[in-house]
Amino acid sequence: MARKPGSRAEITGPKLRETALRLFARDGYAAVSMRQIAAEVGVQAGALYLYTADKQSLLFDAMSDHMEALLAAWRAEAPKGDARDRLEHFARFHIRFHAARADAVFIAYMELRNLTPENFARIGALRSCYEAELESILRAGQDEGTLTVPDTKLATMALIAMLTGVNTWFREGGRLSRDRVEDIYVDMVLNAAGARV
Amino acid sequence: MARKPGSRAEITGPKLRETALRLFARDGYAAVSMRQIAAEVGVQAGALYLYTADKQSLLFDAMSDHMEALLAAWRAEAPKGDARDRLEHFARFHIRFHAARADAVFIAYMELRNLTPENFARIGALRSCYEAELESILRAGQDEGTLTVPDTKLATMALIAMLTGVNTWFREGGRLSRDRVEDIYVDMVLNAAGARV
DNA sequence: ATTTTCACTGAACGCCCGTTCAATTCAAGC
DNA sequence: GCTTGAATTGAACGGGCGTTCAGTGAAAAT
Fold this sequence. Notes:
The structure is a homodimer of 197-residue chains.
Chain A: H1 13-27, H2 34-41, H3 55-77, H4 83-99, H5 102-110, H6 117-144, H7 152-164, H8 166-169, H9 178-192
Chain A binds a DNA duplex (30 and 30 nucleotides) through residues 3, 6-11, 33-35, 43-47, 49-50, 54-55.
Keywords (chains A, B): DNA-binding, Repressor, Transcription, Transcription regulation
InterPro entries (chains A, B): Homeodomain-like_sf, HTH-type_TetR-like_transc_reg, HTH_TetR, KstR2_TetR_C, Tet_transcr_reg_TetR-rel_C_sf
DNA-binding region (chains A, B): 33-52
């Protein structure tokens, strides 16, 4: 993958981040060396440091960008209506968004351990924001009487775990289309949250 | 943690496996060196190879033992009755068993990547056996009419993800007792599986 | 045509890795 | 007290790690 002599490699920050994301997702942060990333980009290892402070930043930026994008995308959809509808909307959004970014999702869940304590706290804060979005729907549903959950905090964790779990087995082109998977999960989510039929 | 001069360290296979399990869970397989494990056991690195073939075996044995114990424990409980009761039993068993072995569970979910392909397939087979236990309950419930799930395969994945998610946040001595958490999750699981009220 | 700029190389730094094995140490059997 | 044999050490092997930086060479500016 060495670049042709006589031409610049023209590596860029974005390309480096994409490559690192892909390799981290495939082999794990600890198992991927800066030399491997560099080879994949078509450059020597030392050149990477023109585009990133260090290896840790590659991981943190990937996770941070993903979580920020997740929050921004959800807020942009800004669902209206009663809590039952908003919950359905959330479930469909979550499955759709996560299915489209399997690599980033995988990293965001598996590589938390490899963040420095400070970076870990930052990612944790972003995740809490996202969870708070779901919890506010459940609380609203409780108040309205459209949803009945035994404990909004636990229901939040339970539903997110259930929805995120889709990423461990869903593959485009499998037995069920993504739309069909959405429908099935919406059904289970609404039932779990005690939506009135 | 060096052993006292003049006395044998008396390390044993079980003690080594326990230490490796603890360190792998805390820091990750890739981040733990054989020298660290040896130091924790109170021995030089070379001595570990009297008790394990290699580092990979420490990981595989930990995961394999955990999955075998999980299957054996579930089969020993051998619940009778209708599918609704068996599903409740399964949910309580899953939460209880997993809460008691947080380290092993964490490894079994996070370190699959670090298994050789052959070992990965073996662990995958054990996991499939466990999932099949839940799926057979859901199918029975569907046949009996005591449960209503849109798709037994997806419901299996969804419920296991939901139940296993408990391990990411549950800590003994927190806001809710384990029994209370069990009750709440049973409620959500039964609702998600369309149990008749 | 010359100078300047700067992306990039390639070698080096110090360190840690999993694993092996000859040498040593020590408890037990005689 | 001596021999035996197993448990353990400690050094070594070959290799890879993240990161730094003086030097290089091609493009851009003059």
